[in-house]
Amino acid sequence: MCMLIGSECIKANAQSCGECIQVAETCGWCAKFLTEGQSKSARCDDLESLKKRNCAVTTIENPRGSVNINKNKPVTNRNKDVAEKLKPEQITQIQPQKLTLTLRSGEPQTFELKFKRAEDYPIDLYYLMDLSFSMKDDLENVKNLGTDLMREMQEITSDFRIGFGSFVEKTVMPYISTTPARLINPCTGNQNCTSPFSYKNVLNLTDKGDEFNRLVSQQQISGNLDSPEGGFDAIMQVAVCENQIGWRNVTRLLVFSTDAGFHFAGDGKLGGIVLPNDGRCHLENNMYTMSHYYDYPSIAHLVQKLSDHNIQTIFAVTEEFQPVYKELKNLIPKSAVGTLSSNSSNVIKLIIDAYNSLSSEVILENGRLPDGVSMNYKSICKNGVEGTGDNGRKCSNISIGDEVSFKISIESKKCPSHGKAEIIKIKPLGFTEEVEVVLNFICNCQCAAKGKPNSEMCHEGNGTFECGSCKCNDGRIGRLCECSKDEVRTEDLDANCRKDNGTDICSNTGDCVCGTCECKKREIPTEIYTGKYCECDNFNCDRSNNKLCGGHGRCDCRKCVCDANYTGSACDCSLETATCLAKNGQICNGRGTCDCGSCKCTNPKFQGPTCEICPTCPGVCAEHKDCVQCRGFEAGEKKDTCQDECNYFQLIKVKDRDKLPQPTDQSFPLTHCKERDANDCWFYYTYAIRNETKEVYVVETLECPAGPDIIPIVAGVVAGIVLIGLALLLIWKLLMIIHDRREFAKFEKEKMNAKWDTGENPIYKSAVTTVVNPKYEGK
Asked: Nearest 5°: CA angle at 307, between 304 and 311?
């Protein structure tokens, strides 16, 4: 993030401290250093980069904005039942009331506003009624509105005033008939109607409900030709004629009652009226006198005037025109729409419901913002509900006594051209109270106030020395204002920009300005050229792992300046040996040297990160077997050369295997070995390296296998032969039994199948033949 913002600071090419601090809130100006070859704009950079470039914190200009509360009267806790009543101007519903913000470009300043609906807050209600002929039955029901409404409103406030006004239409064709008879009585038949008029203020705001009833009872219906009415003219006059109407700085309600649509800006052309409405009061004898001269106001014009005069509008209209006025409500903040019965009999309930709806919502608005200034709202409403964006301006469902708050951030993107303070107003719609916010802008650094005009430090007084650099007078340039604009390209001055009398001006990486090289800026702002002749840079150094100076140093004039514990042309060689330590605590297992953080094995047969691998070597046990055998038991292949070849370790004998060192008891690697000699006897030992000393613990007795016991072997063989013979005899006997039983069963079966008597010869045939005469009858 810092890299990105730093780029923004450098890209701005700020030539003074004032220009620098307007780029972004993280940009600072170094009033001390200036590296040779760099322009004045190099002083402007993000704070971290300036510190890395050895600019002392005390010399960095980085002014900050602030919020000061000038008036902070707490919100009023008021009870309607208390005997002592407060005046409207003594009631506070929003806190604080005045603040002063000091803004620096790009740095938002945030403050909190509290709002609390006061109980028993005064209300002024003005009833504006359409008196065209279609509203005749409605007028009868409104005649007693004053006393009835006063009685109902006592439940809400003890300080209530009511007024009345009426409207019909512009008094020109084609809105009304201008024939003499119709100007006297615009109604047809036997209807007695009053002359048409645009707007009439019948009753100023008063706390006398009887007076309201009396004057309204005297009103008569009028008439016009077209269906839409001239209500917008009337609303405009009610809003702007504060003194004539008698508005106080309290809650202001305007009830607009009609059963028709409305004319708006542009419709006046039908009557030849082309002048836009001027938004001013034109009441004479309580009558609007300029309806024939000015067009109807636009909706936007009405919205502005209603907001300026803190008037909340209640549209009491019939069911037929509900869609039209609901659309109008969406365009007018702090307005409500109620459905008026055909004869206005429900008008009191409509007003009470609409008031409760309007008063339960607070919406903040602000005046025109200076160029380059923006505001953001965040609301913290009832039950901790938060809103942002457009919803951050408002809170709903607020009851009397509820306190809500708004966090407002104001940010400036630039200093105003005039450089003076600005004032903006913030207020809740429909309320007279407002918050005044004074905006002061930080357009220059504090060090600029200490600047010395025509300073000797700026070449014979050709500039103002401020914030560590020269601010040149008109017509002068250069770091010290030493040249005029007409002298910047002479050959003599260019010669001062050639290194070693070469041909390249400023090493082809800078511009010769007034005999001094000002190095060019690269697309990547962190890459810079420096030096008297722009011959140095901070990006053309050796790289390692695709990182400049291996990521372990900085590039200074095309050479790496390595961090501690690193060396090499690309700072890629670590001086740390921790990566070379083997498990036994030795560097490279004692078989190599640690070079740039990695082991270089002295014996080529060893390899691995710590020279621990030897693919062609026998195991540790096999490697030391012969020496352990010759020294421990005076046997083995090295018995004759034992003294010469096997003195490299310390031998310690123990009585049995339990006395051997165990791996869990040692802080160094330990190997347990079990080897066999030529006599098939086993011997046990351990091998370890401790503090560069090789130690061998060996069990002093061999484990040899015992000789064979002949008698058990012979007895076993004889017993085996006998058992095998018996088993074979048993098997033969079993097979014979099975065979005999099968033969006997076969004989028994054949015996049962015999069919002759045992006394007869089955093949004997008698020699006598008996012949019978068939005719013989036995006589």
From this structure: 130
Q: Are 218 and 88 in contact (CB under 8 A)?
A: no
- What single-letter DSSP state applies at residue 334? S
161 Cβ neighbours under 8 A, 6+ residues apart: 122, 123, 124, 125, 205, 206, 207, 246, 248
Question: If we measure between CA atoms, which residue out of 66, 68, 65 comes closest to residue 436?
Answer: 68
CB count within 10 Å of CB 704 equals 13
Reduce the DSSP state of residue 679 to 3 states and report it: coil
pLDDT of residue 34: 60
Chain centre to alpha carbon of residue 702? 76
Question: How far is the C-alpha of 726 from the C-alpha of 65, rounded, in Å?
Answer: 114
- Triad 535, 536, 538: Cα angle to 5°: 155
Closest CA to 407 of 378, 385, 429, 433: 378
Quote the CA–CA distance of 400 and 672 in Å, as a whole number: 87
Count other Cβ atoms within 10 Å, centred on residue 203: 22
Write out pLDDT tens, residues 100-141. Answer: 999 999 999 999 999 988 888 889 999 998 888 878 777 777
Residue 238 has pLDDT above 90, yes or no: yes
Instruction: For residue 630, give the amino acid letter.
Output: C
Name the pTM for this structure: 0.59
DSSP codes joined into one string, 522-539? PSSTT-BEESTTS-EESS
- CA-CA distance, 474 to 486, in Å (whole number)? 12
Kindly report the number of other CB atoms within 10 A of residue 307's CB atom.
18
Sheet holding 160-167, edge to edge: 283-284, 287-288, 199-206, 160-167, 123-130, 251-258, 311-317, 335-339
Q: Ramachandran region of residue 508, left (φ > 0), alpha (ψ -120 to 50) or beta?
A: left
**Max avg pLDDT among 274-288, 636-650, 700-714, 740-754:** 274-288
Q: b or e along 256-267 (b: 16 or more beta carbons within 10 Å of the residue's beta carbon)? A: bbbbbbbbbbeb
